[in-house]
């Protein structure tokens, strides 16, 4: 099937099989930031935005992006670099394999939540598993990043 | 995934016609499509162009399009107020925000999953299912029949003045429930739905006066013991039954007031 | 001591690349024209493959080769990533007709695309002679069912094993007359604990690709912790010379010990060797959970004898260890269950540590962070808490009375001396942090929930003494920047950065002036690999030693340039070398550039080291739990931890190591369950069914350090990576006891188990 879509702001068309998953399609388009960790929708590593809404590319059929805007971390490099400063300072990047999906969801969260509590942050990101960090350093990095963005994290 | 033909239906009639094919599948959020990778789908039907992604709040009811996502349910102020937060409580444990941005009400209801939080809450809310050809049926009846070759277009939640509460037990926060209970009470009646037994939720209706007369503990036992429980990886039948009593009692106290 | 480069937070050198999603992992780098390799796996736990009918599968367009047990080399090998002398038995073939667990491979299929391979797998027909499996490890020894009946089962070292008895290893170690001590003790407790297999759960599943290079050699790019062991294991499996193999490690998406076993590299390597074509294999999550090597299941009996006033006089610890279908890491992990637990109570007059390791038809276990110490410490620390309850004594006071102290000789730890130990301070501090009070570690909240605190301590080692070898090469380049070439593998832990910090401290330069390269077995200096808590300690020592040699070489070259009569008169200050007798100096930059012009002194040094000791790091942990007594639901409100890892090289990374280890252990303690069907199939085979902690499951984790100074470590450092997984399970068990009066001795401690125990 032929689909027309925007990938990181650029309009493109592609011919895709109806059973192709968006995850496989995006990697075939060179978006190597998109990772797969589980195959059962539980890990969040494959998170991308479709029309600015974070979704799991491993469970989304590529045909469904027809007419829609897809954003991967390749398209958010400036923001990713900014957040990377806070992640690096906390040592929160660790093995890094879960980072792109996690960062995609954090960048969606910073747009959506204004003055979240820590509990709201945890809930927003609960679909992003990480086996290295134990999550605490993520929270420290997020709080510092929110502060830098002029946003508050409530206790 | 092995999908031979994919059609974004231009009308419900087209969707319905395509769905008469024996191995046609109506797609929801597709979240668990990949759990059966060997499955071959001759005809996939996409409803996303049919405007079924709206929550319509009317005088007497909420009408939820089949393509409304769980994330929309979670964030809807009207539903939050109507259910006193039970809607969010029933949804917020489901996998993660990205998943809930994809999973649809229609998919959750059509799947008739035993572990479904949505099923459990909607049963207690006396929800109805609107089918393209079959018209409006109660959720409980839909549970028996499923969609068949028809297409679920909407879920209707009647707006009766009621107090509602939801609770569940889980191995961890984003797991399937070990047991899930929803209670909704209006002036006369109490409806208590228990899901993840692990079979699909069932609902029991009792006059509120009966509950008060028996006491919360007695009523909770009567309700919970009227259903059957089985064991699976997440819990044994007897644990589930005991927990159904505990959660039922707590939620009855919550909606009726009074001492636990 | 004021340090410049170490003891400071430095962001990992790869953090920008990782957080911004650069393509640095195995799957991102692989050639796109690789053959895709997959395995056909047995659905039976025990069976004999009678026949594989390949004819339909071979006809599938795109299929390049299908191999079965008849085709593969017949010498047995182990896939455990361990140093010579290898203690794990040689009990594997690439493909074996005898099936030993659900998922054992029957055939390898390689094709030009995944669809073709999947189709071929569907049409391969296998005829099995299905046999009754042996699933219960408590009944395995001398069972009629023999998991490894073969005659060419081969242990390289005698560890007491006998395959005909299902016995992988067996031994006993003792000091003093423990029976007499126990018999004369005022109070004796005798308890048995059960821990299950646990999944390491690294986010990147197992994957590797292999290709032949211009010299006809086989290059393997793998997500591994042990590149040098991959080289040996593949050479053994394929029966080809090690000189024919090169192994490269890119960035790794987590390991936790799982990638200390050469779980699957052999398969794509074999296909690439056979076909001459590049071959790639990636494990699905299900494969990663069903055919890799989880933590060993254990049943551990602990007998403690104490005087009325709380002197722990005798310790008997007996471990029964489930190897599963193959023996990887079995003879070694089991030893840590006693050797890394009993020494904590060094006041004991006598101890005995015995163990038995058995084969069963379950998943072959392997290495997982903690490496056996985790199981032993859950058992011993819970037993000590049970003893405190029996003595009506504070578990804190009981520990302070009996615990290992700095300067003591440790009979239960190979008579090593504890040269660095602040465990007492760790415990005292964690008590303050948690708000523990001996008279009231329990509080009933207004909602009826009970909040209570539990305590545990832990130790581990730092490298394997007298075994592990670490080597480092450092060279001076143009303008005086340094290349640090290591064989240790950064798997996200940050060792590429930590080792650069140590080098920068020695060479008195900014960390950015040291670039780290690792690992390529053709060019990297030998390192046992990143496991056994060895990298910061042992490879760190090798860095220090190499820097010393390098500085000497730099001085030799500077002496030539400066016309200095005596190298000993030269002083290196990080920026320049000065002849103190003449005042003449040459800058590092000039020295580096000059080395490329009319020079016969290589500005490069390589040093190796091993350690005669394995200095234990220590930890004290306190768990605060919230128990709903009506449902048994347990939630972790707070975990406080105080760690003695010697000098902290990078405080941010040490803290994250600690937090990460604690959370893995919380999963092990509360939710990560392993359930087999009666026929031996693992049900918890995905992240949907195997419940690792999410961030919503956790309260606050507070980490502090009580640094000691380890004289054998680099700048006083010891290890940290494994230690930190050891204290949570016993601390949580203790907290649950303080809340409810119930000891849960079988992990995981689920709500249902607690509820049912409370009903009794």
Automatic annotation (TrEMBL), chain C:
Keywords: Molybdenum, Oxidoreductase. SUPFAM superfamilies: CO dehydrogenase molybdoprotein N-domain-like, Molybdenum cofactor-binding domain. Residues 20-132 form the Aldehyde oxidase/xanthine dehydrogenase a/b hammerhead domain. InterPro entries: Ald_Oxase/Xan_DH_a/b (IPR000674), Ald_Oxase/Xan_DH_a/b_sf (IPR036856), Ald_Oxase/xanthine_DH-like (IPR016208), AldOxase/xan_DH_MoCoBD1 (IPR008274), AldOxase/xan_DH_MoCoBD2 (IPR046867), AldOxase/xan_DH_Mopterin-bd_sf (IPR037165). The keyword Phosphoprotein does not apply. Gene3D superfamilies: Aldehyde oxidase/xanthine dehydrogenase, a/b hammerhead (3.90.1170.50), Aldehyde oxidase/xanthine dehydrogenase, molybdopterin binding domain (3.30.365.10). Coiled coil: none annotated. It comes from the Bacteria. This is Molybdopterin cofactor-binding domain-containing protein. It comes from Megasphaera intestinihominis.
